[in-house]
Amino acid sequence: MNYKKLELEDINYIQSIIKDNERILMGENINEEYSHDELSDTISYPDLVVKVKSPEEVSSILKYAYENTIPVTPRGSGTGLVGASVAIEHGIMLDTSLMNHFLELDEDNLTITVEPGVLLMELAAYVEERGLFYPPDPGEKSATIGGNISTNAGGMRAVKYGVTRDYVRGLEVVLPNGKIVEFGGKVVKNSTGYAMKDLMVGSEGTLGIITKATLKILPLPKKAISLLIPFPSLEQAIGTVPLIIKSKAIPTAIEFMQREVIMDAEKYLGKKFPDNSADAYLLLKFDGNSTEEIEKDYENVAQICIEQGAIDILVSDTTEREDSIWKARGAFLEAIKGSTSFMDEVDVVVPRSSVNEMVEYIHGLYKEVNIRIKSFGHAGDGNLHAYILKDELSEEEWEEKVKAAMDKIYGKARELSGQVSGEHGIGYAKKSYLMKALDPATVEIMRGIKLAFDPKNILNPHKVCQL
């Protein structure tokens, strides 16, 4: 597309919409953080940042941008990892972080309606104070709900409860041409035409901008217990996961981690992990309405782990112990990031029955490629996070080795009938791997959907499947 470069007349129009000009950033007033996301080395500044506060503001700006073929990039907290919120074509960036209000708690229908800028940790605290529960639990608690929906974020509780898509009942969306539409609603079942709401979930800001979300909530489980289980080796730990799944016990979470990542987290947080003596660990969580109910599940799983060579079963049955373990787990990404000069990540997902083979493959890959790779992940749902570390490599060595490592990891995932991303999305950084993973006919259908929503391709161009 031949996009229009922002001119004074365009800025004047936007200023006429946004009466509070402090919410409009230009030139040197655009913070460096707006040029990238949390991890991607894709850097590109928008020409203008607008901190929007209402659907009407979003609508007016998009309508004008569409009529004048000006690119628009939506952004929440900027915690993404694949460059999805980077303004590749510059233009206008719409920051939705000020749209952060709780609009309605409907306890009769067990739904909560929020604006997209509400943070995950704010939502979790709000409902839990009222004895309710929003299950999706991605590691980055400062991410916005709009961002979680745009990437279909998963998190650690997906084993039992599912992912963000499973909790989105309805969406208010501003289309690229400025029209405000509603998809879905408060109904539990819906076979009324195409699943437009589900199409928006995971679309990474390429089809429309979410301005309101109605989310399913649950009663808060009364009790939770975690098991931290040390193993002599990674192979024994990860090899136990398929047996746990096959046992038909349903943990809330099944995470795996290695000692070196735990040590990074200890250094980053300045606090000791409950145990760091073993090479590898499984971290399992069970929840329910009573200790007796939970014990029926975890005792069987604990026995499986002991039979597979677990060194011990460390039971965490107090709030303090729970918090210390899961806070450390939540810090893994930042801890690894702090241990190297730069890193890139792989967010592959494979069938749960193949998770042990995939983990062992990644673990052995550093010898073949001669680059440090650290990994952890949601072993219970097959979603693995591998972080390739630059350390002291030159730019030339880094580019060569990171590409070799990624090619091999994504290739192995394809071999195991896996997919490119489990929860972080494709964005800008992972497009080439998506193209290798999907049938060309599927990619053309995706591009056709984008064209139907956004014929002028103004909204978040060059993301997901776009050239």
TrEMBL record:
Residues 42-220 form the FAD-binding PCMH-type domain. Pfam families: FAD-oxidase_C (PF02913), FAD_binding_4 (PF01565). The keyword Magnesium does not apply. The keyword Transcription does not apply. Its cofactor is FAD. It comes from the Bacteria. PANTHER family: GLYCOLATE OXIDASE SUBUNIT GLCD. This is FAD-binding oxidoreductase.
